Automatic annotation (TrEMBL):
This is DNA 3'-5' helicase. It comes from Hassallia byssoidea VB512170. Residues 455-473, 492-504, 512-522 have a biased composition (Basic and acidic residues). It catalyses: Couples ATP hydrolysis with the unwinding of duplex DNA by translocating in the 3'-5' direction; ATP + H2O = ADP + phosphate + H(+). The keyword Glycosyltransferase does not apply. Its EC number is 5.6.2.4. Residues 323-477 form the Helicase C-terminal domain. The keyword ATP-binding applies. InterPro entries: ATP-dep_DNA_Helicase (IPR050615), ERCC3_RAD25_C (IPR032438), Helicase/UvrB_N (IPR006935), Helicase_ATP-bd (IPR014001), Helicase_C-like (IPR001650), P-loop_NTPase (IPR027417), XPB_DRD (IPR040699). PROSITE patterns: HELICASE_ATP_BIND_1, HELICASE_CTER. Keywords: ATP-binding, Helicase, Hydrolase, Isomerase, Nucleotide-binding.
Length: 522
């Protein structure tokens, strides 16, 4: 009599032995001469089990070490419509997929709802230690009777509910892979790197949820999320939720003219750079072109002069004295509202802090000092705060009404994260948030600003205004020295209504958490 096949977990892979009858499972298996058995990638667990079940193959599942947990929430709230829609869309997709919501739209509470709807051992993966502790505090408050642990920052727990950093989860992926039925990837755009992706690849978790405000990556690897987590199942933008879950907001772009001395020096430096680019036949219109420029700048004195000129021109545009005058006016205009100031570099942060006596936070700020500054900002003792990139992601920033971007990168992710810092409604009724972009006119900053807002930077602004082009990120007012304004209307997104149809449950002979997309089994 033939033995019943047994499925086991082995350091991020699955072994099925002896071979099962039928052929469906063989699509996922590879023969391993070292052990003389069939081996399957752990990420294929759900598909493998479903293939075996479809052929009514009896097997023993010794791979899974996950199990049901009791999650009784002590802090349930009435979800916003977009949270209920996102949860329904995720369930309809078989509890696998990515949800895209803007910063401050309640992704953490959505994850709590997903955990309650899928009460199994759960791993939550986050990019920073700050976020790890924020998640831990939220889950301890939400599920006081559950065992919640940490992996990272010196902690090495193995609890039914575990919050881990990407770094720690990747290091321990081989031992974590079969212990959790649900994996939640916070800021999931961090997952598709060569180091982090093993967290998903070595896991058998049949249920996966990715959360991000901006899953797109410049290297195109966000496409791998379809395999590592599942397809995008729901998306909302900040303007879709304005006045509902998020505050009403507008984006005001203020263009600053360089002084005559700054303009002459800027043009001279750009001419030096462009002469070299023309001679070397280099175009900076793409990442490849920039990489080629960096390579060529290291090969000749002319190349080094061109790169130095490029950097000095950028410093003039980023740090023109006109920006500090605008900043001073904005701080006075909006006092005593809480204001966040963002720059592209730490040097400008310290300059603003020193000249205007504004508390500053950079990556060099000690943890205790940063906590003290944020606490005083939250309590209203500090009315303004200046930072570079450190507050973009992974830090719980108190709600503010005004954000001022003095300089930044062309990253849409950075832009959305900075905008999200002022979109939390908190306890403020009819809150009106404003994001100011201060841009040096007729410099490379105009192109950088256009890229982060998703515009076509090679199209003249006046032509865009004549066409009434719709901007992707809210109502944008461009302010010049004359005080004249022009408007871009926000694009309207069609409402997507999801309905959940209950499917007839298929008997699960092998007691595996993978068959039904409506409700998980034990």
């Amino acid at each position: 009599m033939a033995r019943t096949p047994t499925l086991t977990f082995d350091r991020g892979t699955l072994i099925l032995h002896p071979p099962a009858r039928g052929k469906g499972w063989m699509d996922y298996a590879t023969w391993d001469d070292r052990v003389e058995k069939f081996r399957i990638p752990a990420i294929q667990y759900r598909l493998l089990v479903e293939a075996l079940q479809a052929e009514e193959t009896n097997f023993i599942d010794e791979a899974k070490a996950f199990h049901p947990v009791e999650l009784v929430a002590s802090m349930e709230m009435e979800p916003y419509p977009h949270q209920s829609e996102a949860l329904a869309a995720w369930k309809l997709a078989g509890r696998q997929g990515v949800v895209v919501l803007p910063t401050a739209a309640g992704k953490t509470y959505l994850a709590q709802m997903a955990m309650q709807a899928t009460p199994r051992t759960t791993l939550i993966v986050v990019p920073t230690l700050d976020l790890m502790h924020q998640w831990y505090a939220h889950l301890m408050a939400a599920f006081p009777d559950a065992e919640v642990g940490l992996l990272g920052g010196g902690s090495r727990d193995r609890t039914p509910i575990l919050v881990a950093t990407y770094d720690s989860a990747a290091i321990h992926a081989e031992s974590l892979g079969n212990k959790y039925a649900l994996v939640i990837f916070d800021e999931c755009h961090h997952l598709p790197t060569d180091f982090n992706r093993v967290i998903a690849e070595y896991a058998i978790a049949p249920y996966r949820l990715g959360l991000s405000a901006t899953p797109e990556r410049t290297d195109g690897k966000h496409a791998d999320l379809n395999i590592l987590i599942g397809k995008e199942v729901y998306r909302k933008r900040a303007e879709d939720l304005a006045g509902k879950a998020l505050a009403e907001h507008e984006v005001v772009q203020i263009k600053v003219k360089l002084s005559q001395v700054e303009r002459e020096r800027y043009n001279q430096l750009i001419q030096t750079r462009n002469d070299f680019l023309k001679q070397s036949k280099i175009s900076l219109g793409s990442l490849k072109g920039w990489q080629y420029f960096v390579q060529m700048s290291a090969r000749s004195p002319a190349g080094r002069r061109a790169m130095l000129a490029h950097r000095q021109a950028k410093e003039i545009a980023l740090g023109t004295d006109g920006k500090l005058r605008i900043l001073t006016n904005l701080l006075a205009e909006h006092y005593p509202e809480r204001i966040l100031i963002f720059t592209a570099d730490n040097a400008t942060v310290y300059r603003i802090s020193g000249e205007l006596l504004v508390p500053a936070i950079t990556h060099q700020t000690p943890v205790k000092e940063r906590h003290e500054i944020l606490t005083k900002f939250r309590e209203g003792e500090y009315k303004s705060l200046v930072a570079s990139h450190v507050l973009n992601e992974g830090v719980d920033v108190p709600a503010a009404s005004i954000a001022i971007i003095l300089s930044g990168t062309g990253s849409a992710r950075e832009y959305i994260q900075r905008l999200g810092r002022v979109l939390r409604k908190g306890n403020i009724e009819n809150k009106q948030a404003i994001l100011y972009e201060v841009v040096a006119e007729d410099t490379s900053e105009e192109g950088t600003s256009a890229r982060r807002r998703g515009e076509r930077s090679n199209e003249p602004q006046r032509r865009r205004e004549r066409r009434g082009e719709e901007d992707k990120r809210g109502k944008l007012h461009v302010v010049y020295g004359s005080g004249q304004q022009s408007n871009y209307k926000a694009a309207e997104q069609m409402e997507i209504k999801y309905s959940v149809e209950k499917k007839a449950k298929t008997p699960n002979k092998n007691n595996v958490d993978s068959k039904d997309s409506s409700e998980p089994t034990n």
